[in-house]
Amino acid sequence: MSRATLGVEGLSRKRAMRPAIVALCAVMALGLAGCASKQDNLPGSGQGMAGANAGVASPGSVQDFDLNVGDTVYFETDSAAITPIAAQTLDKQAQWLQRYTSYAIRVEGHADERGTREYNLALGARRATATKNYLVSRGIPANRISTISYGKERPVAVCDNISCWSQNRRTVTVLKGAGS
């Protein structure tokens, strides 16, 4: 092949590739547009409630509290101490409860299945009281908060290993309804 022939062939190849390049650019543009809309649906973006969940969590609703604040905090084994992670959730609960003052709450204390019934009832009560005291220290009036201990009677996970025990060592903040 001569040099002149290669130049013509190269030019022909470039022309032949144009539609493929245009198609590739179109696909990339559509992909980027798809990514932009998916990013809007990420948790915390504030725009992800369109579609199947639209209207589910209106501000100030029980669903808003459960989905956007979190109603459960977890404890270490045999402990009623508020962990730093639990404190973050309780801080969000306190902010939400200060904003929506018509709700009373019940803090339910739980324990895993290890230990006697009496021990776990007492541990659940200490956890509920610790949670209540933390919320009171963050400005929630004590008369809005009641506590109850279920001990090990209401597990969320049933198995005989640490993955279940850690889920059952918790307190759950239950909204008692506006004005009740």
Helix percent band: 40-55%
Q: Give the neighbour order of strands across the main sheet.
A: 1-4-2-3
Rg computed from alpha carbons, rounded to a whole number of angstroms? 28 Å
Question: Termini distance?
Answer: 91 Å
DSSP, total strands: 4
Order of helices and strands: HHEHEHEHE
Query: In the CATH classification, which architecture of the domain at 62-176 applies?
Result: 2-Layer Sandwich
Question: Can you describe this structure?
Answer:
By secondary structure, the protein is an alpha+beta fold. The protein has a domain at about 60-175: 60s Ribosomal Protein L30, Chain: A (2-Layer Sandwich). Helix content is about 50%, strand content about 15%. It is built from 5 helices and 4 strands, in the order ααβαβαβαβ. The chain has a 4-stranded mixed sheet with strand order 1-4-2-3. α3 crosses α4. Residues about 1-5 and about 20-50 have low confidence and may be disordered.
Keywords:
49% helix, Pal_lipo_C, 60s Ribosomal Protein L30, Chain: A, cell cycle, 180 residues, alpha+beta, 4 strands, palmitate, cell outer membrane, Peptidoglycan-associated lipoprotein
